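Why do we care about 3D structure at all? Because function follows from shape, and shape follows, mostly, from sequence. That is the central idea of this module. The next example makes it concrete: a single protein chain, its amino acid sequence, and then its structure expressed as C-alpha cells.
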Amino acid sequence: MRRNDLDWIRVAAFGLLILYHVALVYAPYDWHIHSAHTFGWLHEALLLTNPWRLTLLFLVSGAALRFMTGRRSAKQTLRARAERLIPPLIFGALVLVPIQSFVEAIDKGGFTGNFADWLWHEFSPSGLANGVPVNHLWFLVYITAYSLVAIGLLTRPALMQKAEVWLARNTAGWRLLIVPLVYLIVIRIVLFPIFGITNKLSWDGYNHFLSLGAFLFGFLMVRHEALWAELERRRRLALVIALIALPIMMLQAAHPGGGTWFGIPRAVVFAIDQWATIAAILGYASRYLRKAQGPALNYLVDATFPLYLAHQTVLVVAVWFVRPAHMPAPLEALTLVGVTFGVSLLVYEIVRRIPLIRPVWGLKPLPVPPGRAKYHRRRRLLWIGMAAPVLAGVAVVAAVLTWPGFDHARQYLSELGGASAPIPLIFNGGVFLAGGMCIAAGVGFGLAIHALTGGRVIAALTAVVFILAGIGLSASSLYPWPDPRHMAINLGLGIQLAPLLLLWGLWKHMNLKRLKVFLALVFVVMAVLTVLTKHLLWPGTVNDANVGWWERGYALILVGWVGIAAWVLDRRLRDHADRDAPPAEGPSQIP
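And the structure:
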C-alpha cells in the first residue's frame, strides 16, 4: 500500500534539501565548502524550512515503514530494511563521503596530499579510531536505527496497540494541534540547551526525541483515518498559525535580545512554527494530493534515494570547480542548483540501468523475467564489461576538453591525470571507476566461460587477469603521473593475455567462430603494437613526434575489445537461458 500524498511530500522535502544545501554554501555557517559570497541574512531566511523539514521527513519515513509491514513479518521487514539501507550506507561512507571530505580538507587548508593519501588518512587504523565520517548520510544512519526500534515494536503487538490507542485519543479534535506542540516545546526547552543537534548517533539526545518521536508517530498513526480527517479539517488554522509564528521566529533569531529568559520564548515560537507547518502540509497534501498519481510521481519517487546519496558530493565538487570563475552570486547559485540537480539526475539515469549497482544506490533490484533467470548475475557482470570502455572513453574526452592545446601526438594519456592537467580528477576518477568495473567484468568473463564450457581452470585464469588489470588501473589513478607508484598500471598490461585465455576457454565451443577470429586478431594486433612501441623491431617507427597516436591506438584496442567480447558472451548466455527455459503455459491448441 502507498499514499500518493506522502510520496509527494517526500519528493518535495528532498528537493528542498538540495536547495537548502546550496544555500548553506552562502550562509554564515561552518559548512563543508563556501562560495566567495556570503550573506548574513541567510541566517534568518533558512528558518523558512529549518524547523520542520527533517522532522517531516522522519514522520513520512516512519509511515512508509508501516506500509511495508502490511505484507511482511517483523523478520521479513528487518531483512528488507537491511537490504535497502545498509548497502547505500556502506557505499556512501566508502566512496561518496571521502570525496567531499577530501575537497573540504584541501579547501580549508588542512591537507596537502593527493586523494590516495586522503583515503589512507581516513581509513588507516588511526583514522578509523576517530570514526568514519558520514556527512549527509547521518540521516540514513538514523533511519536505520529508528527502523530497528519500530520493528522491535512489531514483535510486541500488545504494546504497539496501547501506544496507538493512546496517540489516537490524545490527537483527537483540538488535541491534534496542542499535544504534539507541548511535546516539542518541552524537549526544545529541556534537551536542546544540553545536546544541541550533533547528527552523531551516540550524543544527540534532543534530535532523537524529536526525530525518533516523529518517526514513531508516522509509524503508529499513518493508518488512522480519523487523524487524517482531523488534519484536513484544521489545515487552514495550522497554516495561519505557521504564518504568524515564522516572522516572529525570524525576528527572535535576528535580534540580540531574542535569547532572553533562558531562550524559552524563542523555543516556544520555534516549536509552534515547527508543528503548525507540519500539520498544515500534511493536511493540505491529504486533501489535494492523495489521489494525485502518474508517471512523474513514480519517476521522482524512484529517483529520490539516488539523488539524496549523490547530491552533496556533486555540490561540494561543483563549488570547488565553479568558484574560481568569480561569477556574480545569483548566476553562481543558479549554476550550482542546475549542476547539482542535473548531475544527480544523470547519476540516477545511469545507475537505474545497471542492475548490479542498483542496490548500492538505494534502488530495488530489477525483476528478472522467468525465462531469463538463468545466468542473469553473470550477464549483469558482463554488462559492466560493456560499460567500462565507454566510461574510460568519456573520461578521456572530458579531460581533453578541459585542456586546450593538449598535444595528442606528443603527450601521453596519463598526463591528463597529472599535476599539469587543469582538472586531473576527471581522468583519474574515470580510470579509477573503469578499474573497478574491469574487476567485475573479469568475474563475469570467468563465470561465462565456466557456464558455456564447464572449464574451471581457464575460467579462473581469465578472471585473475582481468582482476589484476583492474587493480592496476585503479591504483595508477590514485598515484597520478609522474609518481613512481603510477607504474602500477603495468598490472593492466596482463590483459593482453586475456584474448588468448578466452580463445583457449572457448575453443571447443563451435558456435562462436566469429568471436574466436576476433580474439585472435586482437591478440595479434596488440602483440605487433607492443613490439613496435618497445622498439624491438624497426626502431624509430615510434618516436617522440608520434608516440601519442600510437598510444591512443593501443589503448583503443586494449580497452575496446573487452566491450565487444562481453556483448557477444552476453548474447550467448541469453540464448542458452532461453533454450533451457521451461515452455510457457497456455491454453491447449486443438488442430
